[in-house]
## 1
Amino acid sequence: MLGRTAGGLFWMFRYLERAENTARLLDMGFRIALTRPDNAADEWSSVLETAGIRAAYDHKYDSYEQDRVVDFMLRDKDNSSSALAATTAARTNARMVRTALTREAWEAVNECWMAVRKSIHGRISDRDLPDVLRLIRQQNALVRGALHGSMLRNDIYDFSRLGTFIERADATARILDVKYYVLLPSTVPIGSSYDNVQWENVLLSVAGLRSYRHAKGSRINAKGVAEFVILDQRMPRSLAFCYNKIVDNLGYLERDYGVRLRCHKLAEATAQSFKNRTIESIIEDGLHENVLAFIRANTELALQIERDYRFME
Amino acid sequence: MDELDKPRFFDEMYEADGSARAPYALYNQWLENEDIKRLLKKSAEAEAFFRRTGITFNVYGMQEADERLIPFDIVPRIISGAEWRRLERGIEQRVRAINAFLHDIYHRQEILRAGRVPAELIANNEAFLPQMIGVTPPGGIYTHIVGTDLVRTGPNDFYVLEDNARTPSGVSYMLENRETMLQMFPELFVRKKVRDVSRYPDMLLRSLAAAAPPASTGSDPVVAVLTPGIHNSAYFEHAFLADQMGVELVEGNDLRVVDGRIAMRTTLGYEAVDVLYRRVDDDFLDPLNFNPVSQLGVAGILDVYRAGGITIANAPGTGIADDKAIYSYMPEIVEFYTGEKAILKNVPTWRCSEPDALSYVLDNLEELVVKEVHGSGGYGMLVGPAASKKEIKAFRDKLKTKPANYIAQPTLALSTAPILTKKGLAPRHLDLRPFVLVSPQGVSLTPGGLTRVALKAGSLVVNSSQGGGTKDTWVLEE
């Protein structure tokens, strides 16, 4: 496979994941605005922070009003990682690697782009927002479905999955980076209703509220949430889960190509750091420090994969 | 149908009395039982299908968001077996002559010595590449892929309009149009045996592989398609062909010279390419040898080529054979190399570089089509009968300033065929581009081609960049 093709697949799936994560963050923010309007401005600010675009937003606006934030995150031309920009970038990469995709996978991403572009052509009213966010998630699910259902399990698939999980791990870690303080035991009196909402929000932004209840029971607490989002092997957006997948996919490449590279060592080291680790010891070492170190390691791994597999000259 | 009542032009489907011509007889029976609403619905479905599949082209100077569809008309263009056999012989003859001409021009130049083609026409031509002098491409093939543009003016009158011998495009539409028709109207293909076109990608791969260079060592030569990238107007076709052949689609920055070969950067390192089907123009092919600012090519590829390290298809410098200034000499060229009269007619052409021709052209601009010698895509041309006084005046000035830059031809009475419009069938002008593959084993013509059709009533310009559409092209098995 061409190195450029590997890079195109990797980025196509990073961008798709990014669009979907943006939709989830907006979902969460919108829910808070509906249920706790007093906290809405703070929450929109932290949504922007999590998406890594607050500076760009602040440059343009001086207050965190819902319709502005929504517009900025969905389609603003000044936001290069808006849901629309990310979907367009995914589709552009897909066009570039067209020959590596099945017709089904290509048509799914092309239709995803056409549908998303059409649905967020103009400003989105509150009434239409839930439908638009659902559409973004659904269209992404269709692309994933086409990938799973029609693509050979070979290096093409591996690079696609690597992009997905690197981006997803980054997104989950960013949520933790912005929200780590609500997961620390000592900040506010335990059991207050404020906490409950904050923890629920963390779970909502990783689409894990219902699954948390199924997996860990109906009582939500800080430690449980941190453990679920960082260490739980069953939770498809947890850091540990993402790294298991990354190690798997890099392992398939190693076997397929018969070459072990530096990226393998890096990925395994990060995956290992979650093994036999308790959430208590992570919190004791410093939750925030751990999260920051993870984000750095994840970024380094992405660059190493790019170098090792010659995405660029 | 009232437009059909005044048949000033030869119509592919209908006789002057409104009955169907023989090749269309069965189709016409089917059509008469069809409901226009259903056909219009089918036509809309086809458009949705093309858009979903991404069969689009980019218009130069437009934003990426403005990818356009080439309109597809669901009424096929049907060619009888007998008509096709004649075209086939004529095209094959012409393509052989073109290859012989290219070999001669880049070697002994017998045709110039014989005075059959003026030497200055070659020497001063931008399409002539001095770097190719004395170079014999692997297998002796210059034009592996040719798309000959034909027009028709009467039952037996086919003319060659252009010999696209550089990087002809449109073959993906031949294949996708057929695919679309098979899905939409399977019942039609049961009634009538239509010759298959779907083997084209396989034949393309074989004929490219058969022209592998001396340096190729493996049993299966490595073939790749070179594209300028996703912003090129024909990108869809580049990706389509690479995909159909199962070969890599490469860009200039994927390639470099490694140990005297052209190699592509894979996830595992550099791998040599044996045959490059390039869809990049000569000028951009090699920044070391041609346009130094080109980002689309590969530095040093021409040197590797000359040393037998790679096959470039089509060969650099083939443009000298399809240049519009050379075009008017094609009958002589065919005769010179084949010893036979040309089977297919050339459109009579006035070379404005010649004073007598120029003065005739200037006196008759209202009736002529004037073309730039190096233009393509329907740009930079004057269609006299359709032009305003102002446009004619502007062209008159251009002609006087740079006469050698232009040729002129009579306005041909291009044949028409019906297209489906909201008001029913209506005749529109069309042309035909069959695709020819040339390998050391021989010349082969795919039975079909790209039919381009003007969508505006009366328009003679069929180019997709100028609002033309396409039709599925049927060659009947008979």
## 2
Amino acid sequence: MYFPCFNGILCYKVISRRNKGFEDLVYGPLPYTASGHAAGVVPASSTTGEYKFHWIDTRRKDHEYTNMFYFEDSDTLLHVFMTIKPFMLRNYIHYPETLTPLSYVKDVTNTPETGDDFGLFRENYEIVCIPFLEWSLETYNKTNIDLNTFVKFTYAEYEVELIQDTETMRKLWLEQLPVKKVTLPAYSPFRSNAFRRAYDIDYPFSLETIGGV
Amino acid sequence: MPDMIPIYGETDGSSTTGTFDLDSEWFENAVSSIKIDKGLSAKLWIFEIAGKAVDVIVQYSTDGGSSWSTLKRISLPSDGSIDIDHRKPIIVTAKNDNTYIRLTWSQSTAGVSGVSGVIEFDNAR
């Protein structure tokens, strides 16, 4: 996984896939209710504000209840393909949560709260969730229609092992070994104790230090 | 994947001209026009018209609905039904924040007619 803001990577070896055969998770409407509207409806010309997908099941731990993609197992990754319908909606990702997305040569920001033309995605998004790190979404409806919504996830829950060997990381980055690369939407540098808590490192491994550039 | 949004509406049965209120399972409430988000194209593929004789007129606006231009007129010349399945869709691309489409009707004698259709929303190309 490549983090543009750190010019760094995290490499994993997949040990197993825990949810094989059970990859589809139908979520239902967006976890958002506007005043005077049914659950999941995004009213015309309005934003949802930041939200996270949460479990309906309140028996889960607090953190996992408010964010279903939050977990604390350092041997786990969630590889998630989101589908947010309908296509007309504008979606913005905050990675990590609360951080304004920023993704063009480091100094162009977007403003999801006004439905910015820049930095949006429609319907489909791929993201890999790492332990202790929370991200959020914001959805803007630029149409004149109060839109019902529907969300589905196709995901893989991997049991993984973090690779810390410099030579192996370099070979993976240079694709001298079989590898699947995913770039995370981390364009703006951020401070987080997620890496420390999960892997006992401060930041992803810099490409400069592993000789990948 | 772009969305195929089914829409449907009905004349009011008492006016010889008017604008359809369009509804869909994706809409919480029916609307008299549909705003196309900037950067998207709306492709109108299929129309089915049934009921009393009616002309269904497809219109678009690029100024927020102040003025409308006609793209197509589909006639149901006598009571009954008609299916129009376009080999090529009617395409309206939104290049600004004020692009709308709507369906209006015109009848020589007022009566109840229904229209349904499918609009595909896709990235403008």
